[in-house]
Amino acid sequence: MKKFFKIAGIVIGIILILIICIGIYGHFKGKEMIETAKEKSHRIENFESGYSDEYMEYSVVKFNKAGDFHTGFKYLNKAVELNPSSHLGYRGWIRLRKIRDYDNALIDFDRLDSLTPNFVDAPLGEDIDFLRGECYFGKKDYQKAIELFNRNIKNQKEDWADIHSFVYLGLCEYKLGNYEKAITEFQRALKQTESIPESYFGIAKAQQRLGQTEKAKENIIKAENSMHYKRDDLYNEFLNEIYLSEILEFKQKLNNK
Hints:
The chain is extended, with a radius of gyration of 27 Å. Among the domains are: 1-48; 163-257, Alpha Horseshoe (Serine Threonine Protein Phosphatase 5, Tetratricopeptide repeat). α8 packs parallel to α10. By secondary structure, the chain is mainly alpha-helical. The protein contains 12 helices and no strands. The longest helix is centred in the N-terminal third of the chain and has 44 residues, at 2-45.
């Protein structure tokens, strides 16, 4: 029995020594990591690094995620300077989705496209022509936007293109006063899936313009009932985003007729 306790004591002692050693190692390793991070930050902030990805990561993690794009762009611009083909897409995306700087977003997307001939770029996973289409939509250049959204559909094929390519086409035609054409484009989206409230809302507005009030009433109800499928992002407000309040307001307007 004494032998058992002796062995147990030795084992416990070894375990305690190991725990202490791991703790000491973790302490010094942690200090080393902190020092390394400080040195890296100092190198980046003084623009002494030669690695574009370091500037990109610093821009995103430290500033852009917090919404400080003014500061973040100092480092993002350096990343683009060092490796434009790797970082122009992200900068253009930020300019489009976060800052609404359509002109400079287009400059970034166009330059990226010129650097990658015979290749369809997809900044943050989105077809570059879809993003350029959104830029022109934001600029209210609806004819140019139509050209880009159609090119996006051609690139991706009808069944694989972002479904909001069709929604945007419908919106552009509506803005141009082509209400019948707008309805056709919205219906292209609904052929892919019937859960597109943006299309039902667009169709209802176009039908109201055409004097088809009863049909408009049917489609505004469909828009209301499918609102939980709307295009939504916790961190971004889309150019074609719709809200329940405007659906209900338009529904009331139709019912008053």
